[in-house]
Hints:
Two copies of one chain form a homodimer.
Chain A: H1 5-16, H2 19-28, H3 35-39, H4 46-58, E1 62-64, E2 73-75, H5 77-105
Antiparallel strand pairs in A: 1-2
Helix pairs in contact in A: 1-4
The first copy, chain A, binds a DNA duplex through helix 4.
Amino acid sequence: MEPDEDDRLDRAFVALADPVRRAIVARLSRGPATVNELAAPHPISVQAVSRHIHVLEEAGLVTRTRDAQRRPVHLAPEALERLTAWIDRYRLIHERRFRSLDALLDPDEKDRP
Amino acid sequence: MEPDEDDRLDRAFVALADPVRRAIVARLSRGPATVNELAAPHPISVQAVSRHIHVLEEAGLVTRTRDAQRRPVHLAPEALERLTAWIDRYRLIHERRFRSLDALLDPDEKDRP
DNA sequence: GATGTATTCAACTGACTGGTTGAATACGAA
DNA sequence: TTCGTATTCAACCAGTCAGTTGAATACATC
Lengths: 113, 113
């Protein structure tokens, strides 16, 4: 059951922990781009960016296609959804618990927006 | 302008990149806990967990109170919101762009669920 | 086939990180 | 004051990671 589901989530969090990779994701949200295009804004070598993209790919955050010698990179929004799902899960558990605590301390306000 | 706003976001992403720290966040969503309580489920030393909590605190993901010699840790859901806000921002930009591309290629389906 | 461009592979390096153990601090209880 | 518990500080170590440069691969064009 769920062989590497946890692994994928972990890789996604690790991938977004790097500011360069987050910048790449931000750029890709506006459309696919090649490695060179993605490297241009950053003061690091193209090779380094290539490896960043590989990390994002392993995390399922991006996919790649072929176009002659180019390898355009595309955002894979499902992986981003998995991340927000994880975060929201615990955020909502916390919030729900908080509300019921409020209700406990202040029983008159049981039905509040 | 926004002195360390970026820094806070970065620390939050880095903090959640570690599975132990994510487990701590998950546990705290069900209510505050002491360092010892948080360390119990993990096969590492209490000192190590103490440092994990410190990282979470620096990222603004948790806060701490005093109770005699205990230092209960509480979840700070606003930081989690900042994370989802970042992710959703680019996820939505991507999705919006995708829809308008669809409409361009297939102009008849302008109003689809 | 030779050249140029886009990308990746390989080997190396310095910095950071997560773990350890041992000592220190803070506080309540006896 | 002494003892026990909770937590943190400090020094150390091994592994990981992001960057580098140089060589290799893949493809289009000349």
